[in-house]
Amino acid sequence: MATKYSDFIHLQNFLPVYDILEEGASSWQSFIPTAQFNEMLQRSLTAITSSEISKRRSIWVRGTFGTGKSHASAVVKHLLCDDFDSIKTYIENINDPALKSQVRNLRQNKRYFAVTLKGVQQAYDIPRFTLSLQREVSKAVKAVVPDFVVNSDFTAAINWIEGHRRIS
Q1: What is the mean pLDDT of residues 24-49?
Q2: pTM score, two decimals?
Q3: Is the pLDDT of residue 117 over 60?
Q4: Residues with Cβ < 8 Å from 132, sequence gap 6 or more?
Q5: How far is the C-alpha of 33 from the C-alpha of 103, rounded, in Å?
Q6: Among positive and negative, which fits the CA dihedral 94, 25, 13, 40?
Q7: Which sign, positive or negative, has the C-alpha torsion 128, 132, 137, 138?
Q8: What are phi and psi of 122, to 5 degrees?
Q9: Which of 10, 93, 157, 165 has its CA 20 to 30 A from that of 55?
Q10: Could you tell me if 150 and 142 are in contact, meaning their C-beta atoms sit under 8 angstroms apart?
Q11: Burial class of residue 79, CB neighbours in 10 A (0-12, 13-18, 19+)
């Protein structure tokens, strides 16, 4: 009888990569805040609340595959954008008392609007990145307010072309 690899090697069940665009309603709440997450959350809060322009920067999250970057990003998104009543319980999981208080105080008075840009989306240069960002902003706004018109460089170009067509 031949021996098979499966007689010696067994694959463990694992959770697939967290998909921030296709997440379940409360799957983000399974994330356990760590010191690295607290630092990311603090940097995110600083980026949106600081009065110093030099501190109001984009956040770049990097790490190896499977380290929780997408899941952590989803938690930050929910903490900043979801209804306050739906995040109160999760805020209690933040073990840094000052950070917990900062999130609670910020969110009791403000709610932010998220636009998720996942992956490079063929954004290999500034014009393509700008177009990708404009598309995602437009999609996010239209999901909340379907009648809202989002003017962008892309729509301006289409309107210009349509207005300058030759009539034969």
Answers
A1: 92
A2: 0.74
A3: yes
A4: 117, 121, 122, 123
A5: 14
A6: negative
A7: positive
A8: 60, 25
A9: 93
A10: yes
A11: buried
